[in-house]
Amino acid sequence: MVKNNYELIENAKKFWEELRRHDLPETKRRKICDDLMKLVTGKIKELSAVHDSARVIQCLVQYGTEEQRNLIFEELKDDICDLCKLKYAKYVVRKLIKYGTKELRGQLFAKFHGQVRKLIKHKEASDIIEYAFNDFATAPQRLAILEEFYGPTFTLFKEHSHQTLDQIMTEQPEKKEMVIRSMREALLPLIDKEILSYSLVHKVFHDFFTYADDKSKREMIDGLKEHVPNLLHTKDGTRVAMHFIWHGSAKDRKIIIKSLKSHVVKICKEEHGHLLLMAIFDSVDDTVLVQKAIIDEMVKSLDQVVQDQHGRKVLLYLLFPRDPHHFHPDIVNILKEGDGNATSKKDKVVRAKELCDYVSPHLIKYLENNALTMMSNSNHVLLVKAIITNASGDVVPAMRAIAELVAQPCSTADGAINMIEHPACHIALKKIIANDKTRMEAGNGILFSAILLEALPKSTIKVWAASNRGCFILVSLLEVGCSTITEKVSNHLQPVTKSLSKMTFKGAELLLEKLKNPNKSREFRV
């Protein structure tokens, strides 16, 4: 093929060298596209299969006119599926998908009809099917692709309204067994293949696990349990992996958890994948395995986990599982799907406590060593509060680190602001101080307020009384309801009471009122 078209390819490459320049004037680009189109017409299929000339055709698709793209497609349309299987030609199809009009794309996708299951198993073609499904297919086109996994009934007829699997199961329940069998036959050959990372495959697996019987689920888990890391970058793939944990045996769970080795930190930071770790925390009775295989790996790279929004969620789940203050009801409902599974026997409260007890010392130490960083970042406020309020063990070192941080006098020489004026620090302090009420009710004699006052010089308290945010923190201290703390704060503020009465900001007004009526609860909060 190359030998017969050698001269043609060489001439086409000369046009390509010019056409691919980014600084090419538009008028000249149009002229080159026209000349190149005349040169390759009638030979586009052959040229698409060769490395050098395939790039020429790709460039022509990218920079050509709509009419030229349509002509290229007309020449290739009867061989689209075959071209998808070729190492270089598939990129021409990819360019047609990317740069074609909605109408051209629809005609191209129609060529996949009845061939999706074959193409998805092919090393080269699977990439194009995934690209089309994930990046460009409309909702009906996505359904048409998915339906091919549901059985021949849904691929024989082109002219029908496409349905989701939920709709099929609701409106045609008699077809459930046939559909599950068809999906099983389509999915089993995909195990161990690179395409296991494709979102299309994840979607089909998720549909399968939603409706398959327990025996079919266990069979699929047995084949997939060592490949879980390949599933966790998509929502559907993560749901599939969660089903593995929920419906797998204790032995399956152990294999799955061990397959995550060296991937744990990355999984913590996955938008969807981090939910698998929560499902593991919820369900796996062997907490020693979870501690050694997952939490230890997190702890070794704790800074990376803390700095990531999804990583912080994983840490919060260890401290406050399913707490509505930290987790959206939709997430909690997803996790509840695993409740009552046949494998988990241990009481969920005991399981959660064992994990919390294990991770707590590491989190307390991290907060103690990184108080400035965490108290200065609004994204870390909830985690700081969670560590102080719910971590197991001695939290005094972390409390003291925070107290000493905010007690430091501010040097205005470098333009720095007092920590009490920092928005994140201000919010975190209010939350931690407010929790002292709960500590007192629980009979816990260790109060952050007391540690804070112990670290605060009298002069610093007076400085706080001169700022709005500082006044609100002092009001929070008075509202703890501990007579010792109230007395100490009141005594320190006695000399500045007159000054407070002259200040116009809301914090000073509330603080003055609180000093006059210490037992009166305020209704206004910032």
UniProtKB/TrEMBL annotation:
GO term, biological process aspect, one: regulation of translation
Pumilio repeats: 75-110
One Gene Ontology molecular-function label: mRNA binding
Entry GO CC: nucleolus
Gene3D superfamilies reported in the protein's UniProt record: Leucine-rich Repeat Variant (1.25.10.10)
Domain PUM-HD per the UniProt entry, residue ranges: 11-363
Chain's gene name: 106064752
Keywords recorded for this protein, A-Z: Repeat, RNA-binding
The name this protein goes by in its record: PUM-HD domain-containing protein
Xref: SUPFAM superfamilies: ARM repeat
PROSITE patterns: PUM, PUM_HD
Classification via PANTHER family: PUMILIO HOMOLOG 3
